User: Fold this.
Amino acid sequence: MSKRPIIIDTDPGIDDAVALAIALFSDKLDVKLITTVAGNVSLDKVTYNTLRLLKFYGKEIPVAKGADSPLILPLKDASNVHGKSGMEGFDFEEPDEHLLLKENAVEAMHRIIMESDEPITLVPIAPLTNIALLLKVYPEVKKNIREIVLMGGSAGRGNKGVMSEFNIATDPEAAHIVFECGLPIVMAGLDVGWKALVLQEDSVKLPSLGEVGRMAYCLFQKYRGGSMKTGLKMYDSCAIAYLLRPEMYDIAETYVGVELSGDMTAGCTLVDLKGYLGRPNNAKVCMDIDGKMFREWFLESIAECI
Ligand code: BDR
Ligand code: CA
Assistant:
């Protein structure tokens, strides 16, 4: 079977770092391009982190820099979760910049999507600024996008606001554009992210699984997305898990709206399971995950990396 062509839009980010590894070493995915966006930390830092990761992984994948701030709001980063650099805890080698394209993220995505013989799947695991810009500037790309499989949102409570998740709340206007764009969307949000855990007993196995496992183990000592006691949350791997092992999810097809104007709720996703809003379905929402299956898959996947 041919590998599924994807573009990953990311803001590494400790959970991004491991999600990227799983995607890059999978024999079922063909990562055509990685685009970066301001989110967990600044655009310069996430781009530098992406280049450091690719050097460490030994992967020659083109990288394009995207938006340095959300469409309207100022950036409020998540360095409290990922550390000042966005990837604290491991000594990476200095990368050179040969993988960094001169084109920006929107230009590079447009070119690669239009050139591809097979429809591309977009996998955003960060605020949706670049994806919204792409869809607005080059709407013709929709013809050659298979689906958008994103990490973001929540059917319940939030991790950035009371009801809002970080990637959506960081750039709600961009998320609104993406959810209303008419393409098939899969949302893997906090409903599954909070159950996609690495427990202490899993974490101690990581160093013996190889170089990537050793790196993950070190980064996890600094990661504040959960705790060793209650489990570390592998949010971004949830999007990759959907591509590789969708059977671990319970999925509901429904309408998802993004609240833009609520004083206290801006940036929350309204997952309209009961159809109150009377709008046509626009997303498949991952509502639940088999946590045991995820933990086994995660360790197996890390073991398949270098
Ligand atoms: C999302 O926020 C970021 O901090 C993580 O990398 C993930 O993409 C989880 O809410
Ligand atoms: Ca992320």
Summary: The first helix runs from residue 14 to 25. The two ends are 23 Å apart (CA to CA). The CA atoms of residues 149 and 243 lie 8 Å apart. The pocket of calcium ion (ligand 2) is lined by residues 11, 13, 16, 40, 125-126, 236 (CB under 6 Å).
